Amino acid sequence: MDTIASLFSFITTPVSWVIVQFHSVYGAIFGPDTGWAWGLSIVSLVILIRICLIPLFVKQIKATRAMQTLQPEMKKIQERYKNDKQRQSEEMMKLYKETGTNPLSSCLPILAQSPFFFALYHVLNSIASNDTIGVINERLLESAQKAHIFGAPLAAKFTDGADKVEALGSSITDVRVVTAIMIILMSASQFFTQRQLMTKNIDTTVKTPFMQQQKMLMYVFPIMFAVFGINFPVGVLVYWLTTNVWTMGQQMYVIRNNPTPGSKAQAAYLERLHKHVIGHSKVSRRRDRAIIKAIVAKGRDRNESERKFINGLTKAGLAAQADGTVIKSETAAAAQAEDGAPATTGTPKRQQPKRQSKSQRQSAAAKAAGEHHEPKTSLTKSDEPEAAKPAAAAKKGGAKPGNGTRSKAQSGQRKGPQRPKSPSKK
Known about the structure:
Layout: H1 2-6, H2 12-30, H3 35-52, H4 54-69, H5 71-80, H6 85-99, H7 108-128, H8 138-146, E1 148-149, E2 152-153, H9 162-167, H10 172-200, H11 209-229, H12 234-257, H13 264-280, H14 286-298, H15 304-315, E3 318-320, E4 326-328, H16 330-339, H17 358-373, H18 388-397
Helix pairs in contact: 2-3, 2-7, 3-12, 5-6, 10-11, 10-12, 13-15
């Protein structure tokens, strides 16, 4: 580890200078030898680095979105060339080149933080070894060794022996309790950050190896932090816990305000946006207009949440425009004024007739046939002469009088004239 950290020794001087500048500010408030002064200096270093890395974080989000968009195409390539790994890799690289995406772009913030992390580790390890480094002279070195966070020295580790911990002015119990709590918090924050990315901000409609990979990282990263954390000084644990909390908060902000299309976070965002637009009948924020513009441009390719959002606006008498704005729809407003209920604009939706059973269709056909052949007369059934009944029955049913046949067609009988039966031979 020291060999790897020494490779980044070129940045130890700037890192130590930044820590000393923050220490001079916090030392005037809390005292130069306190753990608050040195601990807050490390926290401020993390915040400064993460602010400088915001452009890379934005690039990481765009790269991750681009990779999620390519998941269906990547899955097709994997299925097509599942028996030829070389051809599969060539087609993948070709796809990345055509779309201008880079899988390593999602790792940019972590890679950019690595020099600062190893430089800070090198600085704190030098403090524990009683060696001056960068701009930290002997006076600052002695002050840093006296600094304790909840009883644990900044340069102490979980694996340090009792003699080394006592030389730093602490007990091994305090060091191990504090480092164990910080390692647990560090691993838990990493797990929660990855979990909220998996459960809220990934399009669950597409099942790809990328999702399985992210799910595996959700469990692997916390274990890695727990294993390597026992070899980190307390100051480095403060650094990683702070950067994990920053990442978690930054990701929560992005998921809430710029979710991935097709994810649960997008459904929640569009629901909030729908309530806001209905209440104000306009879109005030530029970010909301950009999202509505993208939804309108998709047309029939909208997902379920986007279609629900557009239909909700239509029912409320509003219409989303191509530039992302929302205007009142005259067609929907007129329909609402007529019947007092919201109506959708455009052509009405066709309704399929209710399917009838076979007996219902035959009964309706028999009834229609009876109404068509019924003679128009003013006589009722009770007033009809007895002599006319057999003739009327024969005319109406097409059968011999007195054979007892009904006038209406029976169930399953064919329409029209029936073929007479041949006489039976005795």
